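Example record for the data management plan.
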Amino acid sequence: MGNCCSDVAGGKMAVGGTASDHLNSASGPNDAVDNFLRSRGYNGLFSQIELSFSASGLRDRDIVSKSDPMLVLYERGKNGALKELGRTEVVLNSLNPKWITKHTLTYQFETVQDLVFRVYDVDTQFHNASVKMLKLEEQEHLGEATCALSEIITKFDRSMTLDLHSEDFTTSTQSRNCGKLLVYAEECVSSKTTIEMTLRCCDLEYRDLFSRSDPFLLISKVVEGGGHIPICKTEVIKNDLNPVWKPVFLNIQQIGSKESPLIMECYNFNSNGKHDLMGKVQISLMELEKLYSSGQGGNLYLSAAAGHNSHNKMLKGRLYVDKYAESVQYSFLDYLAGGFELNFMVAVDFTASNGNPRLPDSLHYIDPSGRPNAYQRAISEVGEVLQYYDSDKRFPTWGFGARPIDGPVSHCFNLNGSSHYCEVEGIQGIMKAYTSALLNVSLAGPTLFGPVISNAAMIASQSLANGGRKYFVLLIITDGVVTDLQETKDALVKASDLPLSILIVGVGGADFKEMEILDADKGERLENSSGRVASRDIVQFVPFRDVQSGEISVVQALLAELPTQFLTYVRSRSIQPSV
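Corresponding structural encoding:
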């Protein structure tokens, strides 16, 4: 825990949580927290969503009285299997129930979370039994409905009315309407609550022989099994045994709750990375708030001896909270509810290195069996997620690196063949335009990204000038390394000021090492030919082959950072949702 800083420069910068980092919190994620969440299966933005349910016009299946409905919530996996997430209480004698039981689930932007809702009439003989113990096959099925979670949370009021239907299991056909189900989604406020604290210590003990100590604070959360996950670190204060650090910012979502235990450790900074522990205390946010209210300090402790049986020695040094303030920061879902949309755009590589589309070894080969090629898979999987965030589902779609019939090589042509407009209808429209283009263009080269990025940037710029509340996402699918690297960098640096993100999928067996230069996650922030640095990271790159057989799909790898890039854009421009 004490070796978290390996050099002077790194050690004297805050690693998440200081005032400067808070202002750019979306561009500076905390690696320790992200890795912890990824180890739990969360790969990108995640928010806790509370679902509430009510129904109307249910079928009456009881002879003497009305039905006694209970709702069961499922999530449908990629293999079609249903996983039960929870059950409501039973509402007695009602065809228009409003269930009290809520269900909280984790919303993940980068996946399509298909939900299934089934309503049952619970037989009278089971009314005294726990709903968890009920055998559903013994209850009468009143109806079911399905939708994606993203369909609900993109509605202005985050509610969706679904038609319930019953299924005729003998003919696999849906029967008449069986009433309506209203599902309401609310983002848990803890997902948005941020705590600002100004911390100081007094009367720390000397750790350096020839100078005063150089203290910094490391704040960690306690996880199952007693382990510590670092979530925040202050800057180093030079030569001071009574340090006052810059404000730190903690998100309740990172911690769990205000009652969750935190470990606050004060270290003396050493340039060799072996920092000396000067004292520590286990304390919760609630207890820190009490310290602030009372103006009192909390004692720091050190283990008196090594081993599990050692006791903690109380030190003279104390920890004080000079400021404690809670605030709610607008979330990604707030902007969606406020009318923001994500607009999907696609650019496809038609350079000759893809191979003859008529031959099975080509990356553009259309398999008669219907098995999609890598280009079709990338379009389908990314589009499947993003389509829910685009209300008109009209997608600008281009090709590059090909020669249209009787024309010169084009590095940005409309995939639908039109010379007037570039949009197609829906994901199937993209697929149709793609397969049609393969019959109407000759593959050529070289691989140039600049023109398609400039076209996407022009659309984003026009939308911005017209006051549009839109954020654009360009998917580029390519089989080779970009030829116009500097021109591409210039276009990306210019586009970094616009509401635009670019997702790049590399298909085939090429060496994409140079492509990673465009993704700031894997290198330095982009710089254009005149020395101007990109205002933010707008590129995500992933080689398709890296994630084909793994647990994380290409969609998750690509989309994981998109909400963060969106928030970086709107927060840096002080754009607020219309809520």
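Summary line stored alongside the record: Confidence is low (pLDDT under 50) at residues 1-44, 169-173, 546-550.
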